[in-house]
Input
Amino acid sequence: MRGRFAEGGTQALADYELLELYLFNSIPRRDIKPIAKALITRFGSFAETISAPVKHLCEVKGISEKTALDLKLLQAAALKLGQESLLGRPVLSSWSALLDYCRSAMQFETEEQFRVLFLDKKNRLIADEVLGQGTVDRAPVYPREVVKRALELSSTAIILAHNHPSGDPTPSQSDIDMTNNIIAAAKPLGVTVHDHLIIGRDSTVSFKTLGLM
Output
């Protein structure tokens, strides 16, 4: 498998083989293939496996807390690479990379998560922070906290993003109301809301594209 990976990259390996190759150093002296296949059967794909909560990973036979954390470290490294590819770059001209990053960070989350991407005067990414974490259908967000954090970072523009664990990215009325409340709170203080992205399982919607802002 290492030879196939060296020659053809990830495209040369099935998802379970990629997991098997990674877990080889995390689970010594065991046949890793059945464990890797069990992970894919349970979670669906390589990306969904490394995005799964530690407690769910540990429910798979052969996965210890250490191994689960090794998998989460892999996810963290992937997200870090995506974030650093955006830092210091004008986000509005790197929209495809931004969408890829948001999907990687939130696509497979089992609870609703609300992120804010803070931009400077040149629309370069300053910071990306989770300001709300909730249940399967709601993440509490307070407009004043969003604006307060923007001012602390000297951010003049923001992009809102949250996921729908149900998989359907269609905005709800509460999503629309919350967005309007943030826009109303931010505008008097010179903070522009560029867009609000909703991340579903297979697609992403933009409030600006839908004409909702």
